[in-house]
Automatic annotation (TrEMBL), chain A:
Transmembrane segments: none annotated. This is Glycine/D-amino acid oxidase. It comes from Microlunatus flavus. Gene3D superfamilies: D-Amino Acid Oxidase, subunit A, domain 2 (3.30.9.10), FAD/NAD(P)-binding domain (3.50.50.60). Residues 13-366 form the FAD dependent oxidoreductase domain.
UniProtKB/TrEMBL annotation, chain B:
Keywords: Oxidoreductase. This is NADP-dependent aldehyde dehydrogenase. Pfam families: Pyr_redox_2 (PF07992). It comes from the Bacteria. CDD domains: GlpA-like_Fer2_BFD-like (cd19946). GO terms for molecular function: oxidoreductase activity. Residues 16-348 form the FAD/NAD(P)-binding domain. SUPFAM superfamilies: FAD/NAD(P)-binding domain. The lineage of its organism: Bacteria, Bacillati, Actinomycetota, Actinomycetes, Propionibacteriales. InterPro entries: BFD-like_2Fe2S-bd_dom_sf, FAD/NAD-bd_sf, FAD/NAD-binding_dom, Metab_Enz_Cyan_OpOx_G3PDH, Opine_Oxase_asu/HCN_bsu.
Length: 400, 520
């Protein structure tokens, strides 16, 4: 059972700050590696961005580079290490279909797919005439698509809660409703955390606070430029199966990679095991404003109706907002922070945190136990945003 | 201002004041404000004024009246009605103001979104509306106003019990609505159960309409009233009402069983039996007190849940009332914590129609005064006094009729909590004990309870109680607000939302709508 309010453990090997998907994965893999873990969260389990997403595990939207390396590792972890638990979080290898609205869009998609295949992604070009076999209700005016068999989906709340349950089974303790208010220090070194009800000392503290990671980092006196990027999701009534895969427009990849502050919407449509259909995706940088925006919701609906005209008659029963934790270079922040030894970060995954959570946990557990991480953490290093020439950056850069 | 009779898509009605809801509170608010010179738009989900309390047969279909019936043409005393003369008098004023153009009535419309207006537009509010029953092209897409009075009313509060998902199990208010609206009986042999004085008119109405009512099961001991008399005695009107119901119950020999609850409902495809049991002083079922009887109708009511969608949507503060309902925080003039938004009736605390009338009138007066109209301070003072007494009575009533803390003890693991998504008690408890689902929102997202068509309106309260059960704590605003907060106030077709998209050509990546608008 989750402990509410006060940790009974006073010392641990690792304190994880944040009980979202990333924190849960870090806790699980650290516990599995034999470390004594305490997870603290000011709210309930998965109370932040983990409860506001669609649960996508995507390779299709990633271009070759460090994030794709992490995604490929995660894909392997989902299907090997965690395969036996997949039913707990409704793991579904549904595949993703990216569609081009015209010949030029389709050509761009196919060119992108060539690069992805070279990096190890399975990407199959789907001709216009073959689209109905994939998605019978897709608008016939769509030019073509590319199918990604490795794209999958999980229910992110269940993922988080069950990873924490499994971690507890391995000796971890999870304390909700316990806000970290400061760090214990021994000189520069971080030696634990302070909460409203006490303190927990630890060799390592992992900041897995998602969109709020910048605040937690600031408590340790270090700067971390993690910013909220708001998104809305529309949910339909439960329907008979209409949409088989995750289906999205080619504009989505460009929007994901963009740093624009203005609103971007591109259609992302997918069914869930409960029969509802989820409609995304919008991206805006408006701080933590939760006020529902009708223009944004309307654009999402219009884009979804353009992809699947049959959805016009579906009833929307719910809509919700979430805040993706976004870094200026669109890469997460992973690994030890040389500016505050003892402090580690696992945050800033933007809209890909659910998919990348398990690879993240796997890598951090390796690094914490002195094993060389399978994916190089250097591109994700926390101090990379400091003005160039700081000693920390040079020192680490020199090591590679 | 225009009414909605004209052919073609209606213009956007605009008023100084928009009143949402045309039950006792809404009608009183609209009439008070319009008589003080405000231009008022009344938006109501019902097709004719009166709300749930004065729900009555279709005036056009059954009485042969025109679309704007005169009040004197209304039936003299329709089935199951209470305070009908109060309605007729209020309706006369409402109709007169409507004829004079001071009130625009938008019936059959539900509000699915509320947003502020400003900038180039007049400062105020925009209500996005859709027909309660599609299609209905008389309903405008939106209503705008400088200020809002929210009178959304409430609905029956339900608690799960084994078998409550069978046809023939109904909310007590639903049984009453069938009687009032259509004069039809929901069953022939009935048990009415739960708690609170509302069970009495439901049983009386059923009996008068010819059903056999085997009994009213009241979970609490009515001696509880004695302790609360300080509050109750100040509202003699309610006392008189109760006398009338008791007389009806006596005439029909309906037993009134105190400290008695329904512990299970049986049947294959429809209700066939009901099991009741007595509660001991500790609130648990007295062993051996279970009785099973053949019935085809079980009417259940555990008080009421106010509809708080619009109150939370405008960002107004809420609190937990004596009966564990989430209600709006209002000041002595029914102002919410959001300037320009007033709340009256059940949404400020369940208290019945008489209190709702006073609150509605005061809200209408306050809105008129705040918008610069002359109002009488004496009238407002008199209303405030009545509201204070009404509130004291309501508190006494709620304290005498709590949900027994032991209600979960007669649930089986298989009892459904959420009928839409078919989530059972065991699943909710497991999520709470093993997965951290210790509050409504987390429990919902882990188990899907409250995620179906009703969006937690029916099961939200019970789920919140179950989630908090283990921690042994009372419900908080944090527990209840997620049961009421809905980005979309009512379900809405995706196409209707899509049509609001204001996007320059080419901005939507796939702009592939049918080219001929006549196709739509």
């Amino acid at each position: 059972m989750t402990v509410v309010g006060r940790s009974v453990l006073r010392t641990a090997d690792v304190v994880v700050v944040g009980a979202g998907a990333v924190g849960a994965a870090c806790a699980y893999f650290a516990a599995r590696a034999g470390l004594r873990v305490v997870v603290l969260d000011r709210g309930p389990v998965a109370g932040g961005t983990s409860s506001a997403g669609e649960g996508n595990l995507l390779l299709s939207d990633k271009e070759p580079g460090p994030e794709l390396d992490l995604a490929l590792l995660s894909s392997r972890v989902w299907t090997t290490d965690l395969a036996e638990h997949g039913h707990h979080w409704e793991y579904e290898a549904k595949g993703g279909l990216v569609v081009g609205d015209d010949a030029a869009g389709q050509a761009a998609l196919e060119a992108f797919a060539v690069h992805q295949r070279a990096a190890g992604i399975e990407a199959v070009v789907v001709a216009h005439d073959d689209l109905p076999a994939y998605e019978p209700h897709l608008n016939r005016d769509v030019a073509g698509g590319v199918f990604y068999a490795q794209d999958a989906q999980v229910q992110p709340m269940l993922l988080t809660a069950h990873l924490l349950r499994l971690a507890r089974g391995l000796g971890a303790q999870v304390v909700t409703g316990s806000e970290v208010t400061g760090f214990l220090r021994d000189g520069e070194r971080v030696t634990g955390v302070r909460t409203r009800t006490g303190q927990v000392s630890a060799d390592a503290v992992i900041n897995a606070s998602g969109t709020w990671s910048g605040e937690v980092a600031r408590l340790a006196g270090v700067d971390l430029p993690v910013l909220p990027r708001r998104g809305f999701v529309l949910v339909t009534q439960p329907l008979p199966p209409l949409v088989r895969h995750k289906v999205y427009g080619a504009g989505y990849v460009a929007d994901v990679a963009s740093s624009d502050e203005a609103l971007q919407t591109s259609p992302v449509v997918e069914g869930t095991p409960s029969g509802t259909i989820l409609v995304g995706a919008s991206r805006e940088r408006v701080g933590f404003d939760r006020t529902p925006s009708l223009p944004v919701l309307a654009r999402l609906a219009a884009a979804a109706a353009a992809l699947f005209p049959v959805l016009r008659d579906a009833s929307l029963i719910r809509a919700y907002a979430g805040f993706r934790p976004y870094c200026p270079d669109h890469l997460p922040v992973l690994g030890p922070d040389p500016r505050a030894p003892g402090l580690w970060h696992a945050c800033g995954h933007e809209g890909a945190g659910i998919g990348l959570s398990v690879g993240t946990g796997h890598l951090l557990a390796q690094a914490l136990t002195g094993v060389t991480p399978e994916v190089d953490l250097h591109p994700f290093r926390p101090e990379r945003f400091e003005p160039t020439g700081t000693p920390a950056t040079e020192e680490l850069a020199g090591a590679h | 201002m225009s009414t909605t009779e004209t052919a073609g898509p209606p213009r956007t009605p605009h008023g100084d004041l928009a009143v949402v809801g045309a039950g006792p509170a809404g009608l009183a608010a609209a009439v008070a404000a319009a008589e003080r010179g405000l231009a008022v738009v009344v938006v109501d989900a019902g097709t004719q004024p009166g709300g749930q309390y004065w729900r009555h047969p279709d005036e056009q279909a059954e009485a042969g009246l025109g679309p704007h019936a005169d009040a004197e043409e209304l039936p003299a005393h329709p089935v199951g009605q209470h305070d009908w003369q109060v309605y007729v008098r209020l309706r006369e004023r409402f109709d007169a103001l409507r004829s004079a153009g001071a009130i625009a009535h938008v019936p059959g419309a539900q509000v699915w979104f509320v947003e502020r207006t400003g900038g180039a537009e007049r400062e105020g509010w925009r209500l996005r509306t859709s027909p309660t029953v599609e299609p209905d092209d008389r309903v405008p897409a939106e209503v705008t106003a400088t200020a809002l009075v929210l009178c959304p009313g409430g609905y029956d509060r339900q608690l799960p019990v084994a078998g409550w998902d069978l046809p023939g199990v109904m909310a007590a208010g639903g049984v009453q609505a069938l009687l009032k609206g259509h004069g039809s009986l929901a069953g022939r042999r009935a048990v009415v159960a739960g708690t609170g004085p509302f069970l009495l008119p439901v049983a009386a109405g059923l009996a008068e309409a010819g059903a056999e009512v085997l009994g009213v099961c009241e979970a609490n001991a009515v001696t509880g009233w004695a302790r609360q008399l300080g509050g109750a005695a100040q509202s003699p009107r309610k006392g008189l009402d109760a006398v009338g119901y008791v007389r009806t119950m006596l005439a029909h020999r309906i037993p009134y069983r105190q400290r008695t609850v329904v512990t299970a409902i049986g049947g294959r495809d429809q209700v066939e039996s009901v099991t009741t049991a007595r509660l001991g002083r500790d609130g648990t079922v007295v062993p051996g007190s279970e009785r099973t009887a053949a019935v085809d109708l079980v009417a259940l009511g555990w008080g009421f849940t106010p509809s708080l969608e619009l109150v939370t949507a405008v960002g107004a503060d809420t609190r937990v009332d004596v009966d564990d309902s989430l209600v709006a925080v209002v000041d002595d003039d029914q102002r919410s914590t959001v300037p320009g938004v007033y709340v009256a009736g059940e949404a400020t605390g369940v208290g019945g129609a008489a209190l709702a009338l006073l609150e509605g009138e005061l809200a209408g007066l306050a809105a008129a005064a705040d918008l610069g109209r002359d109002t009488s301070p004496i009238g407002s003072r008199r209303l405030r006094g009545g509201i204070r007494r009404g509130r004291a009575f309501a508190r006494a009533m709620h304290r005498a009729h709590p949900v027994p803390a032991t209600w979960t003890s007669w649930l089986t693991p298989e009892t459904l909590v959420c009928r839409c998504e078919e989530v059972d008690v065991a699943t909710v408890r497991r999520a709470r004990d093993e997965l951290g689902g210790g509050d409504f929102r987390t429990a919902k997202l882990l188990t899907r309870t409250g995620m179906g068509w009703c969006q937690g309106r029916v099961c939200g309260f019970a789920t919140a109680l179950l989630a908090a059960e283990d921690a042994g704590r009372g419900l908080t605003v944090e527990d209840l607000r997620p049961t009421s907060k809905r980005t979309l106030g009512t379900p809405l077709s995706l196409g209707r939302l899509a049509d609001l998209a204001e996007v320059p050509a080419g901005q939507i990546p796939l702009d592939l709508e049918p080219s001929d608008p006549a196709d739509r």
